[in-house]
Amino acid sequence: MAKRDYxxxxxxxxxxxxxxxxxxxxxxxxxxxxxKNPGNKExxxxxxxxSEAYEVLSNPEKRRAYDQFGHAGVGGMGGGGGGFHGGFDGxxxxxxxxxxxxxxxxQGGGGRGRRRGGRGSQGGKPGEDLSYQLDIxxxxxxxxxxxxxxxxxxxxxxxxSGTGSKSGKGQSCSTCGGIGEVHxxxxxxxxxxxxxxxxxxxxxxxxxxxxxKGHGRTQKKAKIEVKIPxxxxxxxxxxxxxxxxxxxxxxxPGDLYVAIHVRSHAIFERDGDNVLCDVPVSFAQASxxxxxxVPSLEGxxxxxxxxxxxxxxxxxxxxxxxxxxxxxxxxxxLLRILVExxxxxxxxxxxxxxxLEKSFSAExxxxxxxxxxxxxxxxx
Length: 380
Fold this sequence. Notes:
Layout: H1 6-10, H2 18-32, H3 41-57, H4 60-69, H5 93-105, H6 112-115, E1 130-136, H7 138-143, E2 145-156, E3 171-172, E4 181-186, E5 189-194, E6 203-204, E7 217-228, E8 237-240, E9 256-262, E10 269-271, E11 274-282, H8 283-288, E12 290-296, E13 299-305, E14 314-317, E15 333-340, H9 347-359, H10 366-379
Parallel strand pairs: 1-9, 11-15
Antiparallel strand pairs: 2-7, 3-6, 4-5, 8-9, 10-11, 12-13, 14-15
């Protein structure tokens, strides 16, 4: 199912200012927060959707990439946290969520009100994030592709519908009262820790399911499609929201992070958005010029080597490099010319070269002339 437009989700125009964007998000986050809508799966999904949209649009760099390329432009820019758990660049998350929790629980700025949003009150334990190492070819990184991944992940047990119980329901933990946390007083501070009786889940299973043994989850193989954007590079990650381990007893699923590794190429090297390629030419071709075939990302193309080209001189092919991820256009292809000195000459060839060497004037070999002039200045 295709993702909805982030501006449409937050019901704001594309010209929205950061302040108005924050106000719109705060209003809707309060409306759909899971603690205000217990057991309402639709509200939970809307809250996740809102948080994902705000994470992107509140970040100037991600917003520019999204405005240009849509969802593909921000696929690999999720960073190390993602979601509303810490992805709001340039914002004080406590300011946003402190206000939200204060409005939900009638308290300002968090305190015990924030802690009430624990595992038990949100309907289960959240699923863990997963990571996947994906190797792709140089060409796949250059042009992008859609890749199907096969992974093993935790999913809701079919036998007990994810409850972990034969009867389909658990009992509220008497130790923590179903909150999933217990509080200890340490001096002036109250410290919250996961409940030792229910392990932070808020419920106790008295009749565990035969299949999942009360965990509510079992291992299952899943096939997931991931869109790899053109121009991606080794070390970048793609975030697939909700594709990690499923939550226990109705908790939110985790995310899947796909770490990219681009395999080396036999001919091409990467330098940012540019593609480097060494091209050997003969002494004669470099001297009098030639039209030669060279490899590019699109296949062979013809290139003119100017007369008098020197070894290690670079020719630039505009727009033949890699796509600029989250930006405009493509880089260039750089051809590094390597003038090849012939080996294993016949006697006749040697004689011809000697005759040719005698015919050269100093003006036809400017590098040699310059070098000899500097030697003369040094040693007289």
